[in-house]
Amino acid sequence: AGSGADRPVPPAVIAACRAALGDPAVPVFVGGGIRTPEAVAAARKAGADFVVIGTALEGEPQDSSRSLAGFVAAARGNRA
Questions:
Q1: What integer is the mean pLDDT of 33-51?
Q2: Buried b (16+ CB within 10 A) or exposed e, 5-19
Q3: How many C-beta atoms surround the C-beta of residue 74 within 10 A?
């Protein structure tokens, strides 16, 4: 989707890309429009190996629900 996208790539698209690759050793990177830890968790659950969160860190006000620790916990499958 790219940095600053209005919305993240839908989980169904991520899952379709993961399935189309057929090789779990090939990494899937997803980024663009990811503004919340919940969006990170959804991308990981759909099959993303790496989630780029530049949008979340680019000039938008931060609050405690969107701390870097929250994004890391979501990427790891935990809750902060």
A1: 93
A2: eeebbebeebbebbe
A3: 24
